[in-house]
Amino acid sequence: MPTVTWKLPDGSERKTDVDAGTTIMEAALDNDIPEIIGECGGCLSCATCHVFVDQAWFDKTGQPDEMEEAMLDVTDVPKRATSRLSCQITMSDELDGLILEVPA
Ligand code: FES
After folding, report:
1. Which of 3, 20, 32, 63 has its CA 20 to 30 A from that of 94?
2. Cα of 97 to ligand 1 centre, how many Å?
3. Cα(96) to centroid(ligand 1), Å
4. Given pLDDT bands bounded at 50, 70 and 90, which one contains residue 34?
């Protein structure tokens, strides 16, 4: 099963199994990852699922589209070049080993 490594705001790391086809936001909620709320359920209207994708993985997760980019302008923690909304990333075998930083 593919795995995701989460770099948490307290400096610790967690590694979780994530089924292919699951969104990263859903995986965060399933695994009690702090700071990821997913208030809108993944319909791209809350920006409470913000993550920083590790630079080495950003090409594989892909760029945010125009709608996602607009929502990244209203995140609590300012966006970075590798920011994504985790509800818009779907786990796949190609993303096995994905590393994400969770904003504080
Ligand atoms: S869960 Fe609301 S934008 Fe991602």
Report:
1. 32
2. 22
3. 22
4. very high
27: number of Cβ within 10 Å = 24
Q: What atom of ligand 1 comes closest to residue 86's alpha carbon?
A: 4
Give the Cα separation of 83 and 7 in Å (integer): 14
Matching residue, tokens 């990852």: 33
**42 CB within 6 A, ligand 1:** yes
The C-alpha atoms of residue 1 and residue 16 are separated, in whole angstroms, by 10
What's the predicted TM-score (pTM) here? Answer: 0.96
Give the CA dihedral 12, 62, 30, 38, nearest 10 degrees: 100
Domains annotated for the chain, with CATH where assigned, are 3-101 (3.10.20.30)
> Strand order of the sheet with strand 50-53?
13-17, 3-7, 98-101, 50-53, 83-85
pLDDT tens readout for residues 86-95: 999 999 999 9
Give CA–CA dist 25/12, Å, rounded.
19
